[in-house]
């Protein structure tokens, strides 16, 4: 007996450890026909805001349950084979696979260390106070440089400067981050009070005097840390993305035909049948896109944006290349991608179900609008029915939608009788 109790004690302890180890996100919110929906599932669809009270949060939980019941019913009715749903899903499917493969190939490889952030911060607060002499002639710049080396005062040479706006050539204080590389290189070699060699920058030559070099008191590290991290992350992502996309383009052997590109913007009065048969871009040495198949779309976009045809083509081509690559490595077979595709299909089925059972069934009679207006005249501040007819009609429609959707969702609850975990609901309502 003691041995049994001892084993029971250990078993209970083990169960407690297992339960305690379960992530809050994995806790089951409700179950229907053996299918479970967790807190994580809920949070993928809804987010609480700090200002929401318990009643507002409960409405979101109820809405999530209603939506999942609608998906369950849609599956029962075979909505996954509905033509509209299938067509929309094919578009969503490609986008999901492409975007997630890009995320895996690019964004997941972006890492920013604390030392990198600190290095940028140090450059932000590292300030140089500078004065300048600006000239356009290389020979004049060399003359001024030689005069300074002889000990001639900087201020006495300001008369040669094109800068007539600043006092004594003083152009203010600059952080290391804001100075052009060639200017910074020269300034960093110069002690306070000293002058740089002539620096060629743009169309001018600059001789700079370092008036002061100091560390600024602001901004504070904690105040700009995340902004720096985001900037570094963005820069790294762009660099990785450029390499990733260039490799895709090289592997696909992308080639453009200038004659085809030119034909895309030809007016109808000049375009010929031969023009329409010209290829514009090819990939993998076998797949061609012809002028006739994209000319209308390219012209419509060009009229709105004035973006060159090749750039417009690349907007579609690059996502296609990413998608093609994802399929070649069986990225679409990964469990997490399959799960995302399933959820995308569920959402489309929900939209179709909601449209069929609620939106398409709501009909508004003109007399309903008239009656609503008569009983709510105070809401429209002496405006005539003609002036507010569309507004009143929208309100009547909204009210009928609310009534019908309540009936539809209640019927689904009655039919499927979902088992709701009230303990988990209570935790969600109290969540910070």
From TrEMBL:
<dbReference type="InterPro" id="IPR000297">
    <property type="entry name" value="PPIase_PpiC"/>
</dbReference>
<keyword id="KW-0732">Signal</keyword>
<protein>
    <recommendedName>
        <fullName>PpiC domain-containing protein</fullName>
    </recommendedName>
</protein>
<dbReference type="GO" id="GO:0003755">
    <property type="term" value="F:peptidyl-prolyl cis-trans isomerase activity"/>
</dbReference>
<feature type="domain" description="PpiC">
    <location>
        <begin position="112"/>
        <end position="226"/>
    </location>
</feature>
<dbReference type="Pfam" id="PF13145">
    <property type="entry name" value="Rotamase_2"/>
</dbReference>
<dbReference type="InterPro" id="IPR046357">
    <property type="entry name" value="PPIase_dom_sf"/>
</dbReference>
<dbReference type="InterPro" id="IPR050245">
    <property type="entry name" value="PrsA_foldase"/>
</dbReference>
<dbReference type="InterPro" id="IPR027304">
    <property type="entry name" value="Trigger_fact/SurA_dom_sf"/>
</dbReference>
<feature type="signal peptide">
    <location>
        <begin position="1"/>
        <end position="26"/>
    </location>
</feature>
């Amino acid at each position: 007996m003691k041995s049994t109790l001892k084993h029971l004690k250990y078993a209970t302890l083990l169960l407690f450890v297992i339960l305690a180890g379960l992530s809050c996100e994995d806790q089951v919110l409700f179950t229907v026909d053996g299918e479970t929906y967790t807190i994580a599932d809920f949070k993928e669809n809804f987010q609480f805001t700090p200002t929401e009270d318990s009643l507002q949060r409960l409405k979101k939980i109820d809405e999530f349950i209603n939506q999942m019941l609608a998906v369950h019913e849609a599956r029962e009715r075979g909505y996954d084979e509905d033509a509209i749903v299938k067509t929309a899903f094919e578009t969503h499917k490609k986008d999901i696979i492409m975007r997630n493969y890009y995320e895996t190939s690019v964004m997941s490889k972006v890492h920013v260390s604390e030392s990198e952030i600190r290095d940028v911060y140090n450059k932000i607060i590292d300030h140089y106070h500078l004065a300048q002499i600006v000239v356009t002639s290389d020979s004049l710049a060399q003359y001024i440089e030689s005069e300074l080396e002889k000990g001639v005062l900087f201020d006495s040479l300001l008369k040669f400067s094109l800068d007539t706006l600043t006092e004594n050539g003083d152009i203010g204080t600059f952080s290391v981050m804001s100075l052009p590389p060639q200017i910074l290189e020269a300034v960093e070699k110069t002690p306070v009070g000293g002058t740089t060699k002539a620096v060629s920058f743009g169309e001018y030559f600059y001789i700079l005097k370092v008036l002061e070099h100091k560390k600024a008191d602001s901004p504070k590290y904690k105040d700009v840390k995340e902004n720096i991290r985001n900037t570094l992350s963005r820069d790294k992502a762009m660099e990785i993305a450029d390499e990733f996309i260039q490799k895709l383009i090289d592997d696909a052997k992308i080639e453009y035909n200038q004659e085809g590109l030119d034909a895309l913007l030809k007016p109808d009065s000049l375009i010929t049948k031969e023009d329409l048969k010209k290829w514009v871009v090819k990939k993998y040495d076998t797949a061609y896109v012809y002028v006739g198949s994209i000319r209308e779309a390219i012209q419509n976009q060009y009229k709105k944006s004035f973006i060159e045809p090749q750039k417009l083509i690349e907007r579609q081509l690059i996502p296609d290349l990413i998608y093609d690559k994802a399929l070649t490595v069986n990225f679409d077979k990964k469990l997490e991608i399959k799960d995302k595709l399933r959820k995308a299909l569920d959402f489309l089925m929900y939209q179709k179900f909601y449209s069929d059972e609620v939106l398409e069934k709501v009909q508004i009679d003109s007399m309903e609008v008239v009656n609503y207006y008569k009983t709510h005249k105070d809401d429209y501040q002496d405006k005539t029915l003609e002036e507010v007819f569309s507004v009143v009609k929208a309100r009547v429609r909204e009210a009928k939608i609310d009534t019908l959707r309540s009936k539809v969702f209640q019927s689904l609850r009655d039919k499927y009788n979902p088992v709701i975990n009230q303990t988990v609901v209570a935790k969600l309502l109290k969540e910070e």
